[in-house]
């Protein structure tokens, strides 16, 4: 998640209400299915609804719309105790959903008892269909100096949980590249690290690739001013590349500003294939294989 969203501001709620129902038309489906490595189905329903309007089961509608577009697997990502618990429960009953659980870095400074909240995350991490610890990391964009100690403590706690249970670590890194690497170096990175919504340049991408991290690109890679992300995507080995929505945010072009959902992944994948000069089907197959390697089988 690119922003803290478990309690959106009044203006964001108003904006979401205006946008509700304004999902873009479905893109051409992918011939070779991929997965969405990072989405927030709960927040998408809360803030934007579902494509096509009302539904008896809005979460199921989002999953179905994604499958029709060639996005047949989803990683539902938590940002606090309640969303992490919700995601774990959804994954336990839905064959195309796996869960990641964590306290978002902007959540950590707000908690009355960080250690107790981390114990909740650790308990959820032991469930078989919880395959990731995230999103966790550092965010100096929204949290000032006074909150950074709590952010870092939370990040270190999540790293320990990921290592203890052999789960992928999913990192939120906003304006904090050097500090993220410093903490990972000090703690020792887990075997599998995913840089969610990769936001660095080619130099930072090279450093992450060298360390064996996976780089997950969101709709931001399609933005006109995102040349640095396209350079990073171009140099990322196919075996370390993933794609995500971070829905309901970061909608790919040409629909920037409208609600995002997993069914729009084909727009980002096609942009990545063009940027890399890759065959689309081969890139989709590589992304799909990376998902199974990072998160294990969905079913």
UniProtKB/TrEMBL annotation:
Region spans: Disordered: 1-32
InterPro entries, sorted: DNase_TatD-rel_CS, Metal_Hydrolase, TatD-like, TatD/YcfH-like
Keyword set, alphabetical order: Hydrolase, Metal-binding
SUPFAM superfamilies: Metallo-dependent hydrolases (SSF51556)
Gene Ontology terms for molecular function: hydrolase activity
Pfam families (UniProt xref): TatD_DNase
Name of the protein this chain belongs to: TatD family hydrolase
């Amino acid at each position: 998640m690119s922003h803290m969203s478990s309690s959106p501001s009044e203006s964001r709620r108003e904006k979401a209400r205006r946008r509700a129902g304004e999902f873009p038309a479905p893109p051409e489906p992918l011939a070779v299915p991929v997965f969405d490595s990072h989405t927030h189905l709960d927040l998408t329903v809360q803030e934007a609804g579902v494509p096509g309007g009302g539904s008896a089961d809005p979460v199921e509608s989002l999953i179905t719309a994604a499958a029709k577009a060639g996005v047949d697997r989803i990683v539902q990502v938590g940002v606090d105790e309640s969303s992490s618990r919700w995601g774990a429960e959804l994954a336990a009953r839905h064959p195309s959903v796996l869960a990641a659980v964590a306290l978002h870095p902007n959540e950590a400074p707000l908690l009355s008892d960080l250690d107790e909240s981390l114990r909740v995350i650790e308990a959820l991490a032991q469930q078989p269909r919880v395959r990731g610890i995230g999103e966790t990391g550092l965010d100096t964009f929204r949290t000032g100096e006074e909150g950074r100690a709590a952010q870092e403590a939370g990040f270190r706690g999540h790293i320990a949980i990921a290592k203890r249970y052999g789960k992928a670590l999913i990192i939120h890194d906003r304006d904090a590249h050097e500090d993220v690497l410093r903490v990972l170096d000090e703690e020792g990175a887990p075997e599998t690290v995913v840089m969610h919504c990769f936001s660095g340049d080619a130099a930072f991408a090279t450093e992450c690739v060298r360390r064996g991290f996976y780089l997950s690109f969101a709709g931001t890679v399609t933005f006109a001013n995102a040349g640095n992300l396209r350079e990073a995507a171009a140099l990322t080995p196919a075996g370390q590349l993933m794609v995500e929505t971070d829905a309901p945010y970061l909608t790919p072009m040409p629909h920037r500003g409208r609600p995002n959902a997993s069914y729009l992944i084909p727009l980002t994948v096609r942009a990545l294939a063009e940027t890399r000069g890759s065959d689309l089907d081969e890139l989709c197959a590589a992304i799909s294989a990376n998902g199974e390697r990072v998160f294990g089988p969905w079913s």
